């Protein structure tokens, strides 16, 4: 009975955490380095792409979503989908109505 | 035994079946209880995503509208402090994750150590943020009555930043005014993030005391697990804040 919780849930071990830690540190180094190079319009694109990669690693491994139940995966997925929908609709509104008239 | 069969057979359910002390009576099993708590935590975090998402969207739109002002505002931030804080927060996320593992594998000493490290790194983050805030206060870059446009209409007068960005042109007073909007969003977003950190640090202090008494290392790690989700979420918010506030305007 006492071990019930642990048998049912996958325990993520230190090895995974260490690998992810170094990936996140590497990503931070990379994004700071990239910010020192003039890449024009690509600067924000690269910064946000690296940030998103880091966020995905945190969600999948530190927050265990990769090892979680389908309910959790669906909840996270629905949340992100909802968030992107709201941002897209808001931006679509701003771009198509008053752009340049401020 | 499921409730409905007990009713169907008219058997009185035993008043207090054998179960672990942490299992609430309205749950069928410890696993169901943990799943329900995890689900609730995620719903809460998605609500948080919407909250910070609104701020991010506002920042995105205003940055496009008042682009020169937002670039000049961003140039006031020190990328090295931002990088240091990012590293501090990432390492704190790692120590938190290790704390969850210690709780799950019933290592009391390890859990107390990990929570204490997370606690100290959280304080370190706030300390560095304080240094940055103080700089803004000294330069009158906090929005309000005493806000100063000096650094933006006359960049050469701000020798420290001018050294970093020698090509920055003076802004017209009209555009320079909008740097106040940049700093409003800067303080709103980093301030809300810092508030989340302060709440997290408070809960960490509480958890350290409880963990020393062995609270989370006897097979019931849900509390630590769900707090970990909250702490990692704050880490993710900072990853985006760092990119948006510090990095993307350096070559504009």
Model description:
The complex is a heterodimer of chains A (102) and B (252). Chain A is mainly α and 102 residues long. Chain A folds into two domains: 68 residues; 34 residues. Helix content of chain B is 72%, strand content 0%. The radius of gyration of chain B is 24 Å and the shape is elongated.
Largest interface, C-beta closer than 8 angstroms, per-chain residues: A-B, 58 and 59 residues
> If you compute it from the alpha carbons, what radius of gyration of chain A comes out, rounded to the nearest whole angstrom?
19 Å
Order of helices and strands of chain B: HHHHHHHHHH
The third-level CATH topology of chain B is: Four Helix Bundle (Hemerythrin (Met), subunit A)
- The percentage of residues in β strands of chain A lies in under 5%
The tally of strands of chain B reads 0
Query: How many domains is the backbone of chain A divided into?
Result: 2
Seen as an oligomer or otherwise, the chain set is heterodimer
Structural features:
heterodimer; A: 102 residues; mainly alpha; 2 domains; 4 helices; flat; B: 252 residues; 72% helix
SSE map:
The complex is a heterodimer of chains A (102) and B (252).
Chain A: H1 4-8, H2 14-35, H3 42-62, H4 70-97
Helix pairs in contact in A: 2-3
Chain B: H1 3-8, H2 30-65, H3 67-74, H4 79-104, H5 108-138, H6 150-153, H7 159-164, H8 173-176, H9 179-212, H10 222-247
Brief sketch in words of this structure:
The complex is a heterodimer of chains A (about 100) and B (about 250). Chain A is mainly α and about 100 residues long.
